[in-house]
Amino acid sequence: MPAVTPAPARRPRVVVLVTGTGTGVGKTWWTAATASLLRAGGRRVAARKPVQSFDPDDPAPRDADVLAAATGESPARVCPPHRSYPLAWAPPMAADELGRPPITVNQLVAEITADDPDGLHAGTAEVMFVEGAGGSRSPLAADGDATTLAGALRPDLVVVVADAGLGTIHAVRAAVEGLAAHPVVVALNRYDPGVALHARNREWLETRFGLAVVTTPAELAASLRP
Ligand SMILES: [Mg+2]
Question: Which of 43, 49, 62, 202 is catalytic?
């Protein structure tokens, strides 16, 4: 009888939920860049895109492909093929329109934390990134959004990616409102310290609204040290 090796703990050491103020704000770029930096530093990283929707006529790589390239996983591990919807709508709406079964938050959580047959990442990764779809209040499943997913996943950190320029204060304050139960950091995308408005937005977020802010993936990666 073969020796029984205890299974590694299923939950990765650090779970980071990446959401944002809306769609196209840089969630995937931040996730891939931060994961790449950690991996280059010898950390075991994993990424999950629990649902993705896309325009099938758009030649751009899908989020799961970008994230898989950063972590060294397969795209199908990052986003299960049955959670990939070829219609650029909010995923539960796309599922409905395409005649596919409704998505529930519990299903997504189960898939995110499922055992990894190749044993490389899930359960043994030191850092697992989970990228939502759209903004923190965009529908992610028939029964919830990224704030619902955060409640179920209990991440160690929620990253809220936001544009750095005009409109940022409102967008960030609205996006973090449902995330008060979690540690949050705001990642200002394309932040340029030489742009006075970017610097002022950062200052206001930190001092007036008490939010932690990072402006580079290196800063975010450093905050994820064990
Ligand atoms: Mg994305």
Answer: 49
- What is the reported pLDDT for 197? 98
* Residue where the block lists tokens 């200002």: 188
> What value, to the nearest 5°, has the Cα angle with vertex 99 and ends 95 and 104?
40
The CA distance from 189 to 22, in Å, is 12
Q: Where are the domains of the chain?
A: 14-223
Q: How far is the CA of 84 from the centre of ligand 1 (A)?
A: 13
Task: For residues 146 and 135, give the distance between their C-alpha atoms in angstroms, rounded to a whole number.
Answer: 8
How many whole angstroms from 7 Cα to the centroid of ligand 1? 32
Helix and strand totals (H; E) in the chain: 9, 10
Predicted TM-score (pTM) of the model is 0.92
**Catalytic (active site) residue 49:** yes
- Are the beta carbons of 37 and 218 closer than 8 angstroms? yes
Mean pLDDT of 206-221: 98
Domain 14-223 has CATH 3.40.50.300: yes
The three-state secondary structure class of 5 is coil
